Amino acid sequence: MRSPIEAPSTAFGRGADLLEQVDYRLAETPEEKEEIYNLRYRAYLREGAVKESPEQRVTDQYDDLSNSWTFGVFLHEELYSSVRISVLTQQWRESCSAEAFGEILHPRLDRGQVIVDPARFVADPEKAKRLPELPYVTLRLAYMACEYFNADLGLAIVRAEHQAFYRRVFLHETIAEPRFFPGLLKPVGLMAADFPALKEKVFGRYPMMRSTAFERRMLFERERTPRHAAPCGRRPPPHLDRAAALNRSGARSGTERSVAVWRRCNVTNVPLVGTQFRLHNANISL
Question: Which pTM does this prediction carry?
């Protein structure tokens, strides 16, 4: 049986047109988060990955950490899929992969590597049937995070039957065999890719994965000053300390509130050369 996330090779035939309709939304309010937690439950239950629960929701201790971003992927104002992005550094070591595979990841963090850890990738079981490009559109967020945070390594924590997809599309390699993870009924393995070494090859094969600095900043920035470019692509994610302080105090600057609004961005022309976007109804050229 074909893996449910195995999309056909023609998945990118309408990539540019599809991205015009995609709305990446950072879940910030309790209502937004709850919609995603409910989607996780439905998706996991359909695959037999969790037991039935009267709460009909799946969440964990990593959802509200300062080094995590949980996104919903919307088309036509409907939630189609979701993924959580966690960023690991020497200072920030909490994520589901770091818990399950700490003996592999912590030595890399000790050496100063920056690791992007996508997790809780789920899709609406019915909507996924109508949109074979959905896995690519959703996991594009992980590639944008790797670019924004100058990651050394991009991870994928997946079941054995899904590993072929990550190996083919993102050129991941298995670095740890499947093991059981708390809360899931099926074991998951750990895959990884050297982002700086492989990104251009992935971009060449799958142009949809390209993004611009503006789009990445609107999705991931958590402080008011601009993020400066880092030489050689090796620098820990900036401003996480300030993000943690903001989360504790509940304070948000006017600039940060504006960024939260702009994160709901509908981006066009991303796979093409150039930097023109449409954010809702506004044409913006960088």
Answer: 0.76
| Sequence spans of domains, the chain | 14-278
pLDDT digits (tens, 9 = 90+) for 155-182: 999 888 889 989 988 899 999 999 987 7
- The DSSP string of the chain is ---TT---GGGGTTHHHHHTTEEEEE--SHHHHHHHHHHHHHHHHHHTSS---TT-----TTTT-TTEEEEEEEETTEEEEEEEEEEE-SS---SHHHHHTHHHHHHHHHTT--EEEEEEEEE-HHHHHH-TTHHHHHHHHHHHHHHHTT-SEEEEEE-GGGHHHHHHHS--EEEEEEE--TT-SS-EEEEEEEHHHHHHHHHHH-GGG---HHHHHHHH--SSSPPPP-GGG--PPTTHHHHHHHHHH----HHHHHHHHHTSB---STTSSS-EEEETTEEEE-
Question: What CATH class does 14-278 carry?
Answer: alpha beta
Residue 271 has pLDDT above 50, yes or no: no
Each residue of 8-26: pLDDT tens digit?
A: 434 444 556 788 889 999 9
